[in-house]
């Protein structure tokens, strides 16, 4: 199972002549305060819950705008990039970004938000020998643009964001530089993050996540067979369907919401939650997605033997222009001529013109070669009715880091063949 995500925030200068003189305004009391508010630090669990709220809110917008389509995104990638951007924002622009990310600024001061993210990214980037997660941030900045030292330092200290001077007056070369960088960081999976760059672009912030996990109990490729996946009640597509027998794994049948929830663990500190709504119940489940629902599912999961589990093998890709979606979450001003990104350059002549987010998700048997050697623990020998879970219709998938409970990414698979 492999996930690749890249996000780019493109920033363009506007108002070429008139308002472009720097005015040095730094907003009201929104500076990162280094050592205050120690009692209200966001710990990673609080951050996980806030980020889950953001993930579900964004999910609903994406699913609404793309009905019956596959959805894949990384809430962590998007929120980390926007949090870095917020280091450069002031006034309303700043508040909208942080509130759009579901932070309550009365409860969580700005400095704590950044510390929380910084800590989280640091934890996630600890090398583990089992799950491979690499996450990083790079800012490509027009080489003539004067970036405030404070912004650079904070981005670097809190988010390990690197800065690369780029000649955006040569859009072809700049585009190649950025795309090559992303391609390299995502091991070749995301080839063209940016498709067009116009001469107005001054800055681009790129966040990428590369996740590669091996199932704790892999599927055996010898059992994979061609089968039907239901797009709706009538239409089907043929997919390679993986099969696993007698799998003991956390499971919960949610009768209230008419769905089954199965957790499949990766080796190491990551896990995937699969949610399979009953036929015709996807919309109902989607509408109920909120942090409390997720908590209920996680708390209700119990280890149980699934006699047969079927899961399509697939690779799907999505490509979003989030500048059209984020305003629905209240993040508006940063895309407008009112944008106040004065903590980046000292002037108010920057705005964000595009937010591109690409994600690729591969789910496969992965680790088949180890299948024979894998020991399966049958810790709980309950005698239950034979249970068969068949992911042969639209389902949801959420991948977590199990240490922090942060959702690394979220997907809806409506057509494993892509749509
Ligand atoms: C902050 O935003 C408000 C409303 O958009 C505006 O009236 C005010 O001038 C801004 N303050 C600064 C310091 O830019
Ligand atoms: C935490 O804040 C309290 C007051 O809010 C202060 O007395 C204390 O010294 C601070 N502790 C640290 C470690 O900064
Ligand atoms: C933010 O937190 C404060 C204090 O806990 C609370 O009164 C307020 O309603 C919260 N705002 C939102 C938008 O939830
Ligand atoms: C899982 O996380 C714990 C705590 O951070 C760490 O000690 C352990 O090495 C990790 N396990 C793997 C397999 O990466």
Lay out the secondary structure:
Blueprint: E1 2-13, H1 44-65, E2 71-73, H2 75-87, H3 91-100, H4 110-124, E3 132-142, H5 149-159, E4 162-166, H6 171-185, E5 201-212, E6 225-230, E7 236-254, E8 259-265, E9 270-277, H7 282-287, H8 291-300, E10 302-312, E11 314-321, H9 342-345, E12 350-363, E13 388-390, E14 395-401, E15 407-413
Parallel strand pairs: 3-4, 10-13
Antiparallel strand pairs: 1-5, 1-12, 2-15, 3-5, 6-7, 7-8, 7-10, 8-9, 9-14, 11-12, 14-15
Helix pairs in contact: 2-3
The structure holds 2-acetamido-2-deoxy-beta-D-glucopyranose (NAG) (4 copies).
One 2-acetamido-2-deoxy-beta-D-glucopyranose binds at residues 104, 106-107.
Organism: Peromyscus maniculatus bairdii
Family: Belongs to the serpin family.
Signal peptide: 1-20
CATH class of the largest domain: Alpha Beta
Tell the overall outline: globular
**CATH architectural arrangement of the largest domain:** 2-Layer Sandwich
Which range best describes the helical content: under 10%, 10-25%, 25-40%, 40-55%, 55-70% or over 70%?
25-40%
Order of helices and strands: EHEHHHEHEHEEEEEHHEEHEEEE
Uncertain regions: pLDDT < 50 for 5+ in a row?
A: 1-5, 11-40, 367-383
The fraction of residues in strands falls at 25-35%
SS-based class: alpha+beta
- Average of pLDDT: 81
Radius of gyration from the alpha-carbon trace, in angstroms: 22 Å
CATH topology call of the largest domain: Antithrombin, Chain I, domain 2
Q: What is the count of structural domains?
A: 2
Number of strands: 15
GO molecular function: serine-type endopeptidase inhibitor activity
Domain Serpin: 56-416
Protein name: Serpin domain-containing protein
Family: Belongs to the serpin family.
């Amino acid at each position: 199972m492999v996930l690749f995500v890249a996000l780019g925030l493109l920033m363009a200068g506007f108002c070429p002549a008139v308002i472009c003189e720097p005015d040095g305004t730094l907003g009201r009391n929104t500076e990162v305060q280094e050592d205050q508010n120690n009692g209200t630090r966001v710990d990673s669990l609080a951050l996980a819950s806030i980020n889950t709220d953001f993930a579900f809110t964004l999910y609903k917008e994406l699913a609404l705008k793309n009905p019956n389509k596959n959805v894949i995104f990384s809430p962590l990638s998007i929120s980390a990039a926007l949090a870095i951007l917020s280091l450069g924002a002031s006034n309303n622009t700043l508040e909208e970004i942080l509130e759009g990310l579901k932070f309550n600024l009365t409860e969580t001061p700005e400095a704590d938000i950044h510390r929380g993210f910084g800590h989280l990214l640091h934890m996630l980037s600890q090398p583990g020998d089992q799950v491979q997660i690499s996450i990083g941030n790079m800012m490509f900045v027009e080489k003539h643009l004067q970036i405030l030292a404070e912004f650079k330092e904070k981005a670097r200290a809190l988010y390990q964001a690197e800065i690369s001077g780029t000649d955006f007056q040569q859009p072809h070369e700049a585009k190649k530089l950025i795309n090559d960088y992303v391609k390299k960081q995502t091991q070749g999976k995301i080839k063209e993050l940016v498709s067009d760059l116009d001469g107005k672009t001054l800055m681009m912030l790129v966040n990428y996540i590369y996740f590669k996990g091996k199932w704790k109990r892999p599927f055996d490729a010898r059992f994979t067979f061609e089968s039907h996946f239901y797009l709706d009640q009538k239409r089907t597509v043929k997919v390679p369907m993986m099969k696993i027998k007698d799998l003991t794994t956390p499971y919960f049948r949610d009768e209230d919401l008419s769905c089954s929830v199965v957790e499949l663990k990766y080796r190491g500190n990551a896990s995937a939650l699969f949610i399979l709504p009953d036929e015709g119940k996807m919309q109902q489940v989607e509408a109920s997605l909120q942090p409390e629902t997720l908590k209920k599912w996680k708390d209700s999961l119990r280890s149980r033997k699934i006699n047969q589990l079927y899961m399509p093998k697939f690779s799907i890709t999505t490509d979003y222009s989030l500048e059209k979606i984020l305003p629905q979450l209240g993040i508006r001003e940063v895309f407008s001529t009112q944008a106040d990104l004065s903590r980046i350059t000292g002037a108010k002549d920057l705005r964000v013109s595009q937010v591109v987010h690409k994600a690729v998700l591969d789910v496969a048997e992965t680790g088949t070669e180890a299948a024979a050697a894998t020991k399966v623990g049958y810790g709980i020998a309950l005698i239950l009715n034979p249970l068969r879970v068949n992911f042969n219709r639209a389902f949801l998938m959420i991948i977590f880091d199990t240490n922090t409970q942060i959702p690394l990414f979220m997907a809806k698979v409506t057509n494993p063949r892509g749509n």
